[in-house]
Write a structure and sequence with these properties.
alpha+beta, five-stranded antiparallel β-sheet, five-stranded mixed β-sheet, 25 helices, globular, binds zinc ion
């Protein structure tokens, strides 16, 4: 069932977000907003804020945010249409029968059908475990010491003895072949018709942050290859952006995340009480996944529990780099002599694992140890090679304080002369092209800083605007939509400006124009923390600074567009520079 924008807006306006959230979370008035403990992370100080005026919420700690629909989707694990129906009922809005659907709506409809297929398939696989042909799979899971509760919690199942059974079942539930194909649960061939690649395997449903099944992993029980088979990527399943176990781990009270290699590791850890464990989806850890974890601002330590063998170490080194790039603290859990967390917990129990977490190794010292173990320390040339490598690793650490602390620690551990290593590091930083195998951290780092400062300014301007539409004439006079240089900001700015022009801006309804993944970020843009200003004069000064900062950034981005070397570009650059200088000298208000 799909609904027009008008109906969605009607449902939204009949459900005051403060009332809806109050029925789940206890809120207290604080100034213009309401605050409470965030239901989406283990919150100790109220960091969850609800704005009645904007009809939006936002957590300043974990970054969750959105409108009333988004809240229901996150809190109750609903899809968007489900949230619309629940709130329509609550607000006494009668929903119309099915309406005409455009391309967007067709896609949303298809997504709901695919999610239903996945849900039905997951139920089917789970049921098969307890049928005679599933006995082997159940035995396998029991052999891994998984409890009935764990099997149920993760929805583990058995695929059936051939690739037709699940297809027949899905057809019997009324699903169309075309949708079954799109779901990734089946492929089509002239000879065989529609068959599923999943058969005779133990099945692991893969869930998104909201708990919807979006794909499957299947593991063989014997020696067949491949050991794990995952659903292919589809329009509705992106391996890079989702993580196994994340729908549970995101609400863990542990205060950190544990990143492991496999689904079995995640399940074993959750069963042992480590419900903060997650894994990537059959590929290496990705930048998108690091960003997903970074959104939990009070949980910025990531513990790596990768296999202790060669490939596991390589994967850990890669993950360390990505975590550092994302500004996350990374530590490595040593599970030797066991190979992985599953084996470790079985052999030594929960407390021993907690102890290993408490003594996890600093990620830099881990990197150095891996290098140390590669070379023969008795041979002077090998030792020089090791010291050079350590110097290179140090040179690649962007933060100077951290670099110096690592330097002292690593020299103490391996009995090296800190002064000599320090000189080598300075030399390498002076000539970064000599740092072999390492992407130079400095330029990207500097660029990111500038982007950050400017994106904060863009965000704050948009928040000022939605807080006080009276500012629109001034802000729009000096800052145009194209001055918002980052993709999402530009899209938000365009909608805000358009809404302001028409006098119809509703921040909470604007959110519906964005995908589920984007909504938290958009909520963040419209609810940035603003500088505290006491007088109107202070406020004008703060606004003036922001306007200038956004314009400066817009100028920099334009003038550094090295792809365009035309005379027009040069002239335009000069014109913009002059305009910016004029602006700096003027009263804006
Ligand atoms: Zn939160």
């Amino acid at each position: 069932m799909y609904y027009s924008d008008e109906i969605i807006e009607e449902v939204r306006s009949r459900n005051n977000i403060v009332d809806v959230i109050s029925s789940y979370v206890s809120l207290k008035r604080q100034g213009a907003n309401y605050v409470g403990l965030c239901p989406f992370h283990n919150d100790h100080n109220p960091s969850f804020s609800v704005s009645e005026r904007k009809q939006m919420y936002k957590c300043f700690s974990c970054g969750e945010g959105g409108n009333v629909f988004r809240f229901m989707m996150q809190y109750e694990n609903m899809t968007f249409p489900e949230a619309v129906r629940a709130l329509a009922e609550r607000g006494g809005v009668e929903l119309p029968q099915e309406q005409e659907s455009g391309a967007e709506r067709a896609r949303a409809q298809q997504r709901e059908r695919i999610l239903n297929i996945n849900k039905d398939a997951a139920n089917y696989f789970y049921q098969q475990l307890h049928r005679p042909h599933g006995a082997k799979a159940l035995e396998y899971l029991k052999g891994r010491q998984l409890s009935d509760e764990t099997i149920r919690k993760f929805g583990l199942g058995f695929a059936g003895v051939d690739g037709r059974q699940v297809i027949d079942f899905l057809r019997s539930k009324g699903h169309e072949d075309a949708d079954i194909r799109v779901s990734g649960l089946a492929s089509f061939s002239e000879k065989e018709g529609l068959t599923s690649p999943f058969w005779n395997r133990v099945m692991f449903p893969i869930q998104d942050a909201g708990g919807h099944v979006i794909a499957f992993g299947g593991r063989v029980m014997g020696d067949a290859k491949p050991k794990y088979l995952n659903s292919p990527e589809t329009d509705f399943f992106n391996k890079r952006k989702n993580m196994y176990g994340y729908h549970i781990a995101r609400r863990s009270r542990a205060g950190n995340f544990i990143l492991c290699e496999g689904y079995m590791d995640v399940i074993a850890m959750h069963q042992a009480g480590f419900d903060q464990a997650v894994a990537s989806l059959g590929t290496a850890f990705t930048e998108e996944q690091a960003n997903l974890l970074r959104r939990h601002k009070d949980r910025n330590t990531i513990y790596l529990a990768y296999d202790t063998d060669g490939p596991g170490v390589t994967a850990a080194l890669r993950a360390i780099g990505l975590c550092r790039e994302a500004g996350l603290v990374c530590k490595v859990i040593d599970m030797r002599p066991q190979k992985d967390p599953d084996e470790f917990i079985k052999a030594n129990g929960r407390e021993a694992f907690q102890d290993r977490i408490d003594h996890a190794e600093n990620s830099f010292l881990f990197q150095a140890r891996v290098e140390y173990e590669k070379v023969d320390q008795q041979d002077p040339d090998s030792r020089t090679a090791f010291q050079t490598r350590v110097s290179e690793l140090l040179a690649a650490v962007p933060d100077e304080l951290a670099r110096n602390n690592y330097l002292l620690a690593v020299c103490e551990r391996y009995g090296m002369n800190a002064e000599a290593i320090g000189r080598k590091v300075s030399e390498l930083i002076g000539h970064p092209e000599e740092v072999s195998g390492y992407v130079r951290p400095k330029p990207t780092q500097a660029k990111r800083k500038r982007e950050d400062a400017s994106s904060v300014a863009q965000k704050m301007l948009l928040t000022y605007l939605t807080d006080d539409p009276g500012l629109y004439p001034v802000i729009s006079k000096y800052v145009k939509v194209e001055d918002y240089t980052e993709g999402l900001y530009a899209r938000v700015a365009e909608l805000v400006y358009r809404g302001m022009e028409a006098g119809t801006l509703q921040p909470a309804s604007l959110l519906n124009q964005f995908t589920e993944e984007e909504q938290s970020d958009v909520a963040d843009i419209l609810q940035a923390q603003l500088p505290e200003t006491e007088t109107e004069q202070d406020r004008r000064k703060a606004l003036r600074d922001l306007i200038l900062k956004v314009r400066e950034n817009s100028y920099l981005v334009f003038s550094q567009d090295t792809g365009d070397k035309s005379m027009e570009h040069v002239m335009e650059t000069i014109r913009r520079k002059k305009e910016l200088e004029d602006l700096r000298r003027r009263d804006l208000f």
